[in-house]
Amino acid sequence: MISFLISLLALVAGYFIYGSIIERLFDPDDRTTPALEHPDGVDYVSMPMWKVFMIQFLNIAGTGPIFGAIMGIWFGPAALLWIVLGSIFAGATHDYLSGMLSLRHNGEGLPALVGRYLGKATQRVLLVFVVLLMLMVGAVFVYSPAIILESFGGTMTLWIVIIIAYYIVATLLPIDKIIGKVYPLFAASLLFMALALMVGLLVKWPSLPELWDIGQMSAWRGSLMVGGKDAMGLTTFVQNNPLFPCLFITIACGAISGFHATQSPLMARCMTSERQGRRVFYGSMITEGAVALIWATVSSYFIYAGGWREVVPAEQAEAFLAQVGDPEGKTLIQQFGAPAVVKLVCTGWLGITGGVLAVLGVVAAPITSGDTAFRSVRLILAETLHIDQQSIPRRLVVSIPVFVAAFALLMWQIGNPDGFNVLWQYFGWANQTLSVFTLWAVTVWLTLKGKPYVVTLVPAVLMTMVCTTFLVVSPQALALPQWLAWAVAPAVAAIALIWFYIWKRRRC
User: Fold this and answer.
1) End-to-end distance of the chain based on CA atoms, in angstroms?
2) What is the signed CA dihedral for 37, 43, 49, 50, rounded to 10 degrees?
3) What is the rounded CA–CA span in Å between residue 282 and residue 99?
4) Crossing angle of helices 258-268/92-104, nearest 10°?
């Protein structure tokens, strides 16, 4: 638990210290914001700062900092390090600068912003990426809450239909009708869940792998053996999914996520002052990092310290251990996937009332991220095709093809036994690739303005290496030997830096 407390304090310090540095770098002023300059009653709607923060936090959270953190801790305490450093120096910086650029450019969507600084050809490539990512977000964030809701009654099909119906309504209505009214409540539920679980951790104070155990995890991973077989399944997992770059893909929304840059323009169109930016954009990312940190530590206790035995009936625990030795037997991480961990921990630790509120937060987070994903892609496509969005028929023209494509992807996911895991991997890669586009665009803007561009150049190069090498070593892609990652990564970094240096010499 020492590493957890150090990491939590580091996140708070990062907001006040590094967040102030990034804010001074951008230099917000008192110019009129898009919401005040030309309100349209649909997407450009002024809202109080606290409400904008809560909506932004809920939009970017989803199940990313929960599911991603749960799966990320399978790599060990290196996950905590990535959450902290990623949130402060990469994710929050990425979110703040991209959000503020959108605010400066009339609430423009990400493809338009990237087109301004990386060219129209890059904008067209990014547009395809954004649409595909939004469709994957919609599919993932329909399926995962439906799994949890099914356990409270009804069928998965029923819940999928209800969630999709809600998505359609929320995407078409003005932003202040549903999103502005219920999102702050759901955000409060998500924060309650995180705080309640943190209190539970502090009360239990378990012995967990610490940051100084990085590289010495064999004893922890082999601590649960049944008949000579690794019942955890972590050793095989890490062998098939090397820490670099897979950890950086698995934990996206809790560290850095390109998806956030598609959501920030929604709130840039609702802010009343540029000076709210650090609290809204940088602050919501740091808050999300704290949620990811809590869930990573909860999952560490669940897996490494035997916490799973506390939240499952004794007969279920014995049945799990008995089947481990079977040829088709499941390991701990296969038996208790991320959605199962969420459900078991929330209901087991917080009781009925607390469990319902906590699960509400976990269910609401992906649903609300899903509907804003669809809203975002509607606005991006409308902006690209120059289709005015003030009338419902025009919104339907853009929205219907999007929902049809998302439904087809959802049906594939349900019909594929490993569909969720495969889609999550591709979602993670596309998500981080989107952050690469955003970071390079912001780096170009900083360079053109004569500002210290190194603050985004370093994470841009890092994420470029991550996304490239993931295609080389990922089991879902080429699955080539790990040593190739160590050959490809520096080569990619060198190419990226040479390109940037040549561009800088020509433009500046």
Assistant:
1) 49
2) 170
3) 9
4) 40
* pLDDT band per the 50, 70, 90 thresholds, residue 438: very high
Q: Which of 267-281, 336-350, 422-436 has the lowest mean pLDDT?
A: 422-436
Enumerate the β-bridge partners of residue 226. Answer: 229
Contact 94, 261 (CB under 8 A): yes
* 226 φ/ψ angles, rounded to the nearest 5 degrees: -130, 115
Q: What is d(CA 390, CA 78) in angstroms, rounded to the nearest whole number?
A: 47
Is the pLDDT score of 420 beyond 70?
Answer: no
- The DSSP code sequence of 49-101 is HHHHHHHHHHHHHTTIIIIIHHHHGGG-THHHHHHHHIIIIIIHHHHHHHHHH
Model confidence pLDDT, tens digit, residues 93-145: 999 999 999 999 999 988 889 999 998 888 888 888 788 777 777 777 777 77
- Contacting residues for 454 by C-beta, under 8 A, at least 6 apart: none
Indicate if the pLDDT at residue 148 is higher than 80: no
Quick count: other Cβ atoms within 10 Å of Cβ 151? 13
Q: Which tokens sit at 123? A: 């904008």
Q: What is the pLDDT of residue 477?
A: 64
3-state secondary structure of 225: strand
* Mean pLDDT comparison of 194-198, 220-224, 455-459, highest-scoring range: 455-459
Q: Is the dihedral of CA 379, 382, 383, 389 positive or negative?
A: negative
Give me the sign of the Cα torsion angle 256, 193, 204, 319.
negative
Look at residue 364 and tell me whether its pLDDT is greater than 80: no
Q: Is the pLDDT score of 335 beyond 70? A: yes
Domain over 2-33+41-412 is classified CATH 3.40.50: no
Q: Which residues contact 182 (CB under 8 A, 6 or more apart)?
A: none
Residue 401: alpha-carbon gap to chain centroid: 25
How confident is residue 451, by pLDDT bands cut at 50, 70 and 90?
very high
Residue with token string 């049906």: 411
Please state, in angstroms and rounded to a whole number, the distance separating the CA atoms of residues 296 and 317: 22
The CA distance from 175 to 180, in Å, is 6
Residue from 178, 161, 160 nearest 169 by CA: 178
Residue 192: is it exposed, middle or buried by C-beta count within 10 angstroms (0-12/13-18/19+)?
A: middle
Q: Residue holding tokens 């060219």?
A: 119
Provide the angle, in degrees to the nearest 10, between the axes of the packed helices 179-204 and 338-385. 150
More confident of the two residues 477 and 111: 111
| CA proximity to 268, closest of 97, 123, 114 | 97
Which residues, in sequence order, are CB contacts of 342 under 8 Å at separation 6+? 66, 67, 70, 148, 359, 362
Rounded Cα distance between 437 and 110, Å, is 9
What's the pLDDT score for residue 299?
Answer: 95
Could you tell me whether strands 229-230 and 225-226 are parallel, antiparallel, or unpaired per DSSP bridges? antiparallel
Measured between alpha carbons, how far is 239 from 481 in angstroms, rounded to an integer? 11
The amino acid at 93: T
